[in-house]
Write a structure and sequence with these properties.
The structure holds 2 protein chains of 2 kinds. By secondary structure, chain A is an all-alpha fold. Chain A is about 70% helix and about 0% strand. Chain A has one domain. In chain A, a hairpin with a 6-residue loop joins strand 1 and strand 2 (about 140). In chain A, about 50% of the residues are buried. Chain B folds into 2 domains: about 5-220, Rossmann fold (3-Layer(aba) Sandwich); about 225-300, 2-Layer Sandwich (Alpha-Beta Plaits). Chain B is built from 9 helices and 13 strands. In chain B, the strands form 3 sheets. Chain B has a 6-stranded mixed sheet, with helices on both faces. A 4-stranded antiparallel sheet of chain B has the order 11-12-10-13, with helices on one face. In chain B, helix 5 links the parallel strand 6 and strand 7. The radius of gyration of chain B is 22 Å and the shape is globular. The relative contact order of chain B is 0.14. Classes of the chains: A mainly alpha, B alpha/beta.
Chain lengths: ~260, ~300
């Protein structure tokens, strides 16, 4: 792993990512989520299952992917766009190390700007409630357990989403547009309405892992925890392998005669 | 001693041919890759630098292909044309981080040496964002030289440099070439290569139009007739004195000024200044009328 992580690439990537104006957007989805949670907590009765809907469905299929999209496309795509990546690639550093290092930085930033806010929002929400087993009514969820489950699910989502978006950045110069289309069409629309799509939905991997820890039917996790972990690992590995291959074939376009 | 070899290299984008069956051997020393804009110079540079695979043919640096092999950069330094550097870093941080990426044993010393060679020590602690274009070019060259490469590739290195910086860069390239390194730079400005001794490769419309000693090719270029438009305080007097000079082959008095034909670009430029001064004539404008690079290269290809 150490050969795949280059501290100098990490330092440049972190400086480059945080120095762009786009960095101001990193915290925007998280701020919206926390403000929404505070507002709902103040206005809704405590015995309603809203936290699972807001922090689960909305959080995992909108908040985390949007944050990961902004960050994941910044660490590589922005450098490809402005051409500064050439300075990195014209060195003996292996392209696999460039990809893995940038993926690690993007994942870490996404964890800070999306997974941690999920944890904070879940704690603020008080955990909400779920339908009682074998009878009518609702039972209150343990707020701490609920928050930890969502946090772990969000950490997993941060990893997988960033692998996907780093790969998209290596594949196309329109990474943000392609990524946005993927989030809105695949993660928000299809994965919540077409059951077969859940098997290839990152948000459902996160929800599956969170549900495995808290057993919350309101989360509407479409996959079991084992399937989520295995599929998440496969998607991450495949996306990173593709990104490495694409970056190895990175080309500068010369002017045609 | 490392040689860059291109054998029957072609590169096309869809059905557009950018580089057409180019064969050249770039030996140690300074070589200029010369051609008008759009001739295919950047495509050739990108292929040599390992950032574009040839569609056909074979390209090697020291008998190794540069495509998909980052280890080749241990012996190659690249100065890309695009003015895109990490502007948020200081010059020193940029060169030092490049030294670290090359895993040099003493990156700080290597960075300090490269910065000193490019005469950038005074500005090294400033952020690159505050640099002029010429300074950015120089810090890019410092980064490309930090690992002491045998091969240095520079894509339009003189862009944005003022005359003093150009001379400094040319002297540096000359020195590096005389040390046995293989220096290849591209340029679309003929006069830029004037000071640089060595060989040139002239590319026109994707093809290699001329190759060899700069002076021989330059003679071909200078022997073609040049046309100048001149405006002065006394065009008639100036025309009369100019026609007596051996470098001037024809003078025509027009409404727009004097149209002067000369067989020797350099001699004419010297003569007109001296004549104007000696006869008390004020020169208002001296414009080469056919100096588009395309016309120069077209002449060369026709030759």
């Amino acid at each position: 792993m150490s050969a795949l992580f280059n501290p100098t690439v990490a330092w440049i990537t972190l400086r480059a990512t945080l120095s762009r104006k786009r960095a101001l957007l990193f915290a925007l989805p998280a701020v919206i989520l926390i403000l929404l949670t505070v507002a709902l907590r103040a206005s809704r009765a405590p015995m309603r299952p809203w936290p699972s809907h807001v922090l689960g469905t909305f959080g995992f299929s909108v908040l985390i992917p949007l944050t990961a999209l902004i960050i994941g496309t910044s660490v590589l795509g922005a450098e490809i766009d402005d051409g500064s990546i050439v300075h990195l690639l014209a060195t003996p550093v292996r392209r696999s190390a460039v990809v893995v290092t940038k993926f690690v930085i993007a994942t870490g930033l996404t964890m800070v700007f999306a997974a941690v806010p999920e944890l904070i929002a879940a704690l603020i929400s008080g955990g909400g409630s779920i339908p009682a087993k074998g009878g009518p009514g609702l039972v209150t969820l343990d707020a701490g357990k609920f928050a930890v489950a969502l946090f772990v699910g969000a950490l997993a989502c941060s990893v997988i989403y960033n692998a996907v978006f780093v790969m998209v950045s290596a594949a196309t110069t329109r990474a943000i547009a392609v990524g946005l289309l993927y989030v809105l069409v695949w993660e928000v629309l299809l994965s919540n309405f077409v059951s077969g799509v859940k098997l290839l939905s990152v948000s459902h991997y996160g929800l599956g892992i969170a549900n495995g820890l808290v057993n919350d039917p309101v989360l509407e996790a479409g996959l079991g925890v084992l399937t989520s972990v295995v599929m998440g690992a496969i998607v991450t590995a495949v996306a990173l392998a593709l990104a490495m291959n694409l970056l190895s074939s990175f080309t500068l376009k010369g002017e045609p005669a | 001693m490392t040689t860059i070899e291109l054998r029957n290299v072609s590169r096309w984008y869809g059905n557009v041919v950018a580089v057409n069956d180019v064969t050249m051997s770039i030996e140690p020393g300074v070589t200029g890759l010369l051609g008008p804009n759009g001739a295919g110079k950047s495509t050739i540079m990108h292929m040599i630098a390992g950032f574009l695979p040839p569609s056909r043919g074979e390209l090697t640096i020291g008998h190794r292909s540069s495509w998909r092999d980052p280890s080749v950069y241990r012996q190659v330094g690249l100065v890309p044309e695009r003015d895109s550097v990490y502007a948020f870093l200081t010059g020193q941080q940029f060169v030092l981080s490049t030294a670290k990426l090359h895993e040099l044993p003493d990156p700080a010393a290597a960075a300090a040496r490269a910065i000193a060679v490019l005469d950038m020590a005074d500005a090294a602690d400033r952020r690159i964002a505050t640099y002029s274009k010429g300074m950015r070019q120089r810090i890019k060259v410092a980064a490309a030289l930090v690992h002491d490469p045998e091969v240095l590739l520079l894509d339009e290195p003189f862009n944005g440099m003022d005359p003093r910086q150009r001379l400094h860069m040319m002297d540096l390239l000359d020195k590096l070439g005389s040390e046995g390194r293989t220096i290849l730079f591209s340029s679309h400005i003929l006069e830029e290569v004037e000071r640089l001794s060595g060989t040139i490769q002239v590319v026109v419309a994707g093809r290699l139009a001329a190759s060899g000693d700069f002076r021989a090719i330059r003679r071909l270029m200078t022997s073609r007739p040049h046309v100048f438009m001149v405006r002065s305080s006394d065009d008639r007097l100036l025309g009369g004195t100019l026609i007596g000079r051996p470098a001037v082959t024809a003078v025509e008095l027009t409404r727009a000024g004097l149209q002067v034909r000369t067989s020797d670009y350099g001699a004419f430029c010297r003569d007109i200044a001296v004549l104007a001064r000696d006869h008390g004539i004020r020169l208002r404008e001296v414009l080469p009328a056919d100096e588009s690079l395309e016309s120069v290269f077209a002449y060369l290809v026709a030759s």
